[in-house]
Amino acid sequence: MAIRLWPQDYERKDHITKAEKGILRYAARNFQNGHMVVGIDPVGLSGERVKLGMYISPSEGLVTFSIYSGMINAMPVFSYIAYVQMVEGKIYERLLDSKLLIVRNGEKKALKFPYKHIVMFPDEVVGKTTVSKDDLQQLRNYATFDSFRPITSDGKEKRIEDLKIFAGIRKAYDKTFKSLSELECRAIFERLAPEYTVVLNETINVCVAEKKTLVTEADLRITGKELEYKTFFLDEYQVGVVNDMGKGHRVILANPGAGKSVLLLSKAFKYASLYKGSNVLLTCYNSNLADSYNFNRSCANFGKDIKLFIMTFHKLVKKIYEECLRSHCASNIATEEEIQKCIDMVKQGKVKLRFKAIFIDEVQIFDPLYLELCYRLLEDDDDRVFLMAGDLNQAVRALSRKGDAPWKRMNGIQLDFTGRVRYIENNYRNSQEIGEYISHMLQHMNTRLSMLELINSLEYEYNSFKVGTNPTIALKVRTGVQRTSIKTSVIAAIKEIATTYRISYSDIAVLFPFRKVPYLNYHFLYWLQQGLGEEGISYSMIINEKDGFFVKKKPGDITGVVISTIESSLGLDFKAVILAGLFPYNYVNLNGQVGSEIKTWSAIKNMPEEQQTAVQSQMRAVYTACSRARDVLYVISDLKPGTPMEEIIKQVPDRTPLPQSSTQSGTPSTGVRTGNKRNTVTKRTASATIKERLLNEVVDHVTIKAVIQETKKDTTVMVDLAKYPKQKGIIGKKVGETFKLAGVSLTYKITKIIANDTLIPKDVANSPAKQGSTVQAGKTQPKSLKDFFVSKGFKAVDCRSNNGCLWILGERKELAPYVTEAERLFGVAGGYGAGKASSYKPAWWTKSNK
To answer: Which of 83-97, 284-298, 387-401, 720-734 has maximum average pLDDT?
Structure first.
């Protein structure tokens, strides 16, 4: 493999020193393979004067190095030797905890590969050092000049081999070593550079090789505690984000599975290493997510003396009360009064606890009061960091646009977030088919909500969800299950996943909305526990304890099937997920009370706003639960047939279209795919190409093609002052100029301005006019909306006589100019989507009878 530099974009990073950049440049020019890493702190000894790094050569082994600023004669030679031996011993012991990295001789162990530590002196110049030759000879296997040049060098080295980087190995290793695998390289990173890895709570079965001729140190015995967890590298983009050491306040918004929690933990590691004398806080709302963070910290053996605090927000308040105010909170959940008291005490200077950097996960569920307390706990320093991360969903986007997002409503704190919001759309969690299912579910949900005018599909790219590329082991969606059979169905699914796909019970999670809903006589958690007990299947509860009848397990202590509510699973992921217990979602669940039954989409439209919001939250909960699955997803539904909630979970992509005669109601299909079996779909290819008339500047009723400067993504803006009066500021803009939309922090650069009134499909414009249609612009206006689109060469499916919609088939970019014109001519409204009537082909729909 080619040499990989960590980080790749080091030249632009101010926290990387001149000497570290020099090593990376040298490696980029001269090293052929492996990993060169700077800015790490594996044993907590990095500081202002000493920086640590490592070089992994797949064919030769591992070298860690300390980069010293200053001259060699600053300390006696024996001090450097003692320092190297101390660091080398600590790192060697750390590496021996990995089953992947060791071999054994009876009950003793050693590393598979050569390893040593050295000190590097970049400020010394070969041939000009004032250190005696005898002293340099003593340092021969302990120190080097810049870029691994031997400390006894005469400057004649011409090749990498001449540097003898791996000469003088002191620690025991397997003399039959040939090479390091990618899996073994990841294990080294997980122990020495944890900020660049993702560790899953999923152990790997590793057989430690026996080497009878191996000589090991007497005290290095097999302890039985050697473990190996499944580990992945961060990609280049993620490494870049981790090393973006921006100051001040920032927000990261991302879809589930985009790795925002991983990035927050890695950034917390990085800041805590850089600012050892200061406190760093990583906080969230969900205790399971905090436990997961602490599990990863324990795996990394991240410096015990480093002041990194990882806790839920309510534990933070409890800590302030107990350690700073010498008092106690009334319960584990802090009240608004208790939080406000903390804020008042901080303002008065009575709370001494302060943080250099604060990282907040799940910010979308943080109350502004919570954020105010966190912000006021920051040090009064120009280098301080306040970074929040949250889910990118409709609620967050809408609140942000209205200035109502929690981070914009902190009392007495006015922060400008222009240019300080980063959007991440990558999906690192879900395998391909599961990702496609979730994406399709999201699109269908948003199409329906747009039809009800509960969201405005033109305001945001709601469906921004990238699908991963890893193969899916299994995806099954089963509907129509009787509520009385839900227990046996879930237990059967658990056993099927364990036996068919050979997945251990501890890698399977059962997620559900509520433990119980007494009003509906629905006791899912009790039934599930009963079924598991009857089958002798062990399980672990990770639900936040309320009733006190079970012990909540932490990630490292989990044995058996994981049981959790959807809410308690936020921020977590599992190899296999079973989503069940959905029957209560037949009803609006608001503040713990069961409300109206959700029978139809029109019923949702007629609900009070508070109930509409609750329904949307329930829909997003289903989407969120499914997004917890990495490789296996089973959805077992006891929802009532034909309800909106059931319709959403049935949206499996790539289904065979139903015959047109059976689709006239305009109701979406309920077909389902199970397992990895795929149905084929015939995709529509546009039959008409568009003839565009381009304009020099923006006027009313035009289509603007633009590039979002912050994300470099293409987008389309429809100008219609009657509908969007705030677009007045765009009028007069020219190609190449930029603009902003009211309430949106993004900047748009115009690439093309298209006149809407003269966009005519070429094959229609050049053919005889069809009877009853008008082709040429400026002539008689079509009698109906349907005639208008037919005259433009589009196919129409009219289901309005059966209380359905008029569907106009076509890609959005094809239809958009004509839709804008139709809205102007006929005064209609509609939305983009796909349904049963369109045979699940992309289309524009409207309920207008014009």
So the answer is: 83-97
The answer to whether residues 666 and 799 touch, using CB atoms and an 8 Å cutoff, is: yes
Q: List the beta strands (DSSP E) in 328-373.
A: 357-360
Query: 807: closest CA among 773, 836, 771, 774?
Result: 836
In single-letter form, the type of residue at position 812 comes to: R
Nearest 5°: phi and psi at 450?
-70, -40
pLDDT 10s digits, 695-722 = 888 887 788 888 888 777 777 787 877 6
d(CA 440, CA 220): 54
Residues 6+ apart with CB under 8 A from 239: 6, 7, 8, 196
Burial grade of 195 (CB within 10 A; 0-12, 13-18, 19 or more): buried
* Rounded mean pLDDT, 286-315: 82
CA distance 460 to 724: 14
Nearest to 58 by CA among 183, 208, 203: 183
Q: Kindly state the DSSP code that residue 323 receives in the 8-state scheme.
A: I
Strands 561-565 and 539-541: parallel
Amino acid at 44: G
Tens digits of residue pLDDT in 430-485: 888 898 888 888 878 877 877 777 765 444 444 455 677 778 899 999 999 999 99
Nearest CA-CA partner of 704 in 756, 747, 758:
756
Task: Write the DSSP assignment of 766-782 as a string of letters.
Answer: TSPPPTT---STTSPPP
The DSSP line for 465-501 is -----SPPSEEEEE----GGGHHHHHHHHHHHHHHHS
Proportion of the chain above pLDDT 90, given as a percent: 35
The beta-strand segments (E) located in 204-345 are: 209-210, 229-233, 248-254, 280-284, 308-312
* Residue 91 host element (H or E): helix 77-95
Q: What is the pTM of this model?
A: 0.67
Between the two ends of the chain, the Cα-to-Cα distance in Å is: 64
Q: How far is CA 589 from the centre of its chain?
A: 28
- Supply the mean pLDDT for the chain: 81
How are strands ordered across the β-sheet holding 209-210? 108-111, 102-105, 209-210
pLDDT single digits (tens) 717-768: 878 776 667 778 888 899 999 988 765 667 889 999 887 654 433 333 333 3
What does the alpha-carbon distance between residue 407 and residue 362 come to, in Å, rounded to a whole number? Answer: 12
Contacts of 157 (CB under 8 A, 6+ apart): 149, 150, 163
How many of the other CB atoms lie within 10 Å of CB of 192?
A: 25
CB atoms within 10 A of CB 82: 12
Question: Is pLDDT of 688 > 50?
Answer: no
Q: Using pLDDT thresholds of 50, 70 and 90, give the confidence band for residue 288.
A: confident
Give yes or no for residue 663 having a pLDDT over 60.
no
A 10 A CB-CB count for 258 gives 25
